[in-house]
């Protein structure tokens, strides 16, 4: 088979595996064409093998990245191009490094190195400042929660490992077939079948035997459906408060305990010092006095202006020589108690809410923060995950803001701090009617399974949803619809193994990968 066709085939198979439109079973063979391509080049007599491999692999990864995430262009064409092209290049480097190791070691060791290296690459995307874990392989099963109930032990890295083991078995079957013919396919095909069916069978048993044990809570997710490009940053907080309360009145009952409103729905930047006396806050408090059982969790934009240079930090923005400000994408909870609970978003969107490695890059390229409306500024974060407690003390909500819901181990921080339900507030309106908001909702199902916590999700334009601890979507409010979604969830106090251990598969992979790399690089090349 021609090498460009092999590269294109891998790219298409990966893209066609992705939620919410794809079939993830294709993932178990998606890398095989690329592995065959690398094997052919490595054993060929042609010159410039590395350059050719880089070109072919890059084509395949660009196809995958473009088809699955091109919706980013609706918010910013430059940002979308950067994410697609750079992420494809990083994936290509993984294959190139595998190629280097494969020339110096046995095929089995090289493949083990590739698996652990890819897992380390995905872990990097969860932690560094250019973080973009959207295409981590374990995410691809989000539309099939009955297959992955064991994520409560492994997290999404269990899915990544599962995918790579399938591709390795398939690739080795190809090598055996080339050497011995059809007779050599029997064992690999049986092995592939066992690999696919065993985890799914275990998951189905867990799915059908799982019991929801805890306190039942009536919740409400508001969906104001405000256009962020033309309305959101041009509407007063007072008007927003009145609209939210009108939506709440449509479905509130005497048992409604928790009400969610979307990320930065109060978008007219509020001075921190002025917040206690804000008029819109008094509207909300007046409503709570009439409904004392209600706990109102909402997104809000805060700004803290100061002239004291001692308060300046890396996330601080400068207005002029003697004036600075901190900009917050926050969540607050208002209830019958006297105090307001606060949390500041801490996993930020690259280029929109943070300037990665600005100490290095800003002198070279200037300020390239992407303007999506409102204040174009670095957001100020916090170290620990806050948990919001309802006025009766029984419900403890994790205030997860937008992009934070993509990070599995990050979300476990809320649960370790006592959260018994996950409250996701987001604004997915930037992407329009595309796969962006659909995939974002789908990934929330993974967090439910990993932590065994129900999810209440309030999205500005949708899709708002209620998800149970098995990852089933119980109720939704359609995209581009204004309304209030109500339902009853069951909280959970038990911590899963993944909540306690986190991304242990990635940490083990790091040690294995480094060990294989050091051992191999001291040996002479085999070819």
Distance between the termini: 23 Å
Largest sheet: 8 strands, mixed
Q: What's the count of strands?
A: 14
Classification by helices and strands: alpha/beta
Query: What is the third-level CATH name, the topology of the largest domain?
Result: Nitrilase/N-carbamoyl-D-aminoacid amidohydrolase
Radius of gyration: 25 Å
Q: So, CATH architecture of the largest domain? A: 4-Layer Sandwich
What would CATH call the homologous superfamily of the largest domain? Carbon-nitrogen hydrolase
Per-chain topology:
Blueprint: H1 3-15, H2 27-30, H3 32-42, H4 49-69, H5 77-102, H6 107-127, H7 151-154, H8 156-180, H9 186-209, E1 216-223, H10 237-251, E2 256-260, E3 266-271, H11 279-290, E4 295-306, E5 317-320, E6 323-334, E7 341-344, H12 358-365, E8 388-389, E9 396-401, H13 408-416, E10 421-426, H14 435-451, E11 455-459, E12 464-467, E13 473-477, E14 483-490, H15 497-501, H16 504-521
Parallel strand pairs: 1-2, 2-4, 3-4, 9-10, 10-11
Antiparallel strand pairs: 1-14, 4-6, 5-6, 6-7, 8-9, 11-12, 12-13
Helix pairs in contact: 1-3, 1-4, 3-4, 3-8, 4-5, 5-6, 6-16, 8-9, 10-11, 13-14
Index terms:
6-stranded mixed β-sheet; about 15% strand; about 525 residues; alpha/beta; 8-stranded mixed β-sheet; globular; 14 strands; about 45% helix; Nitrilase/N-carbamoyl-D-aminoacid amidohydrolase
Written account of the structure:
By secondary structure, this protein is α/β, with parallel strands linked by helices. It has 2 domains: 3-209 and 503-521, no CATH class; 216-300 and 332-493, Carbon-nitrogen hydrolase (Nitrilase/N-carbamoyl-D-aminoacid amidohydrolase, 4-Layer Sandwich), CATH 3.60.110. 44% of the residues lie in helices and 17% in strands. Strands 1, 2, 3, 4, 5, 6, 7 and 14 form an 8-stranded mixed β-sheet that branches. Helix 14 (435-451) links the parallel strand 10 (421-426) and strand 11 (455-459). The radius of gyration is 25 Å and the shape is globular.
């Amino acid at each position: 088979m021609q090498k460009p066709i092999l590269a294109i085939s891998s790219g298409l198979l990966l893209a066609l595996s992705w939620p919410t439109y794809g079939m993830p079973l294709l993932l178990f063979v998606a890398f095989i064409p690329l592995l065959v391509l690398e094997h052919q080049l490595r054993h060929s007599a042609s010159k410039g093998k590395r350059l050719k491999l880089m070109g072919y692999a890059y084509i395949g990864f660009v196809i995958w990245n473009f088809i699955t995430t091109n919706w980013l262009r609706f918010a910013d064409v430059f940002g979308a191009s950067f994410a697609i092209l750079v992420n494809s290049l990083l994936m290509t480097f993984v294959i190139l490094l595998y190629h280097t190791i494969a020339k110096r070691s046995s095929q089995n060791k090289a493949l083990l190195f590739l698996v652990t290296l890819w897992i380390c690459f995905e872990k990097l995307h969860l932690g560094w400042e250019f973080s973009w874990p959207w295409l981590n392989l374990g995410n691809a099963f989000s539309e099939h929660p009955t297959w992955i109930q064991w994520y409560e032990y492994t997290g999404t890295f269990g899915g990544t490992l599962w995918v790579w083991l399938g591709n390795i078995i398939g690739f080795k079957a190809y090598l055996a077939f080339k050497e011995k013919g059809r007779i050599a396919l029997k064992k690999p095909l049986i092995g592939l079948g066992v690999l696919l069916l065993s985890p799914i069978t275990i998951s189905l048993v867990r799915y059908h035997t799982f019991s929801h044990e805890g306190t039942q809570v009536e919740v409400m997710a508001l969906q104001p459906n405000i256009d962020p490009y033309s309305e959101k940053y041009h509407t007063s907080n007072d008007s927003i408060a009145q609209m939210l309360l009108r939506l709440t009145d449509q479905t509130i009952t005497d048992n409604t305990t928790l009400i969610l409103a979307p990320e930065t729905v109060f978008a007219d930047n509020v001075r921190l010092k002025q917040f206690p006396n804000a008029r819109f806050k008094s509207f909300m408090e007046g409503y709570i006095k009439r409904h004392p059982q209600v706990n109102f969790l909402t997104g809000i934009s805060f700004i803290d202006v100061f002239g004291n240079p001692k308060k300046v930090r890396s996330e601080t923005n400068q207005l002029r020589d003697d004036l600075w400000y901190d900009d917050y994408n926050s969540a607050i909870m208002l209830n019958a108690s006297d105090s307001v609970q606060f949390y500041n978003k801490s996993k930020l969107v690259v280029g929109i809410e943070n300037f990665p490695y600005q100490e290095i890059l800003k002198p070279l390229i200037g300020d390239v923060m992407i303007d999506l409306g409102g204040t174009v500024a670095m957001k100020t974060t916090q170290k620990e995950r806050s948990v919001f407690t309802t006025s009766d003390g029984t419900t403890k909500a994790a205030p997860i803001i937008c992009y934070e819901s993509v990070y599995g181990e990050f979300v476990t921080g809320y649960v370790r701090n006592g959260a018994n339900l996950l409250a996701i507030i987001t604004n997915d309106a930037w992407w329009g009617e595309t796969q962006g908001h659909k995939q974002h909702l789908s990934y929330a199902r993974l967090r439910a399974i990993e932590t065994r916590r129900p999810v209440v999700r309030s999205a500005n334009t949708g899709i708002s949803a209620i998800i149970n601890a098995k990852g089933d979507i119980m109720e939704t409010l359609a995209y581009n619809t204004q309304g209030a979604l109500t339902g009853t969830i069951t909280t959970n106090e038990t911590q899963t193994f993944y909540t306690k251990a986190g991304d242990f598969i990635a940490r083990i992979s790091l040690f294995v990968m480094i060990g294989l790399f050091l051992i191999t690089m001291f040996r002479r090349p085999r070819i």
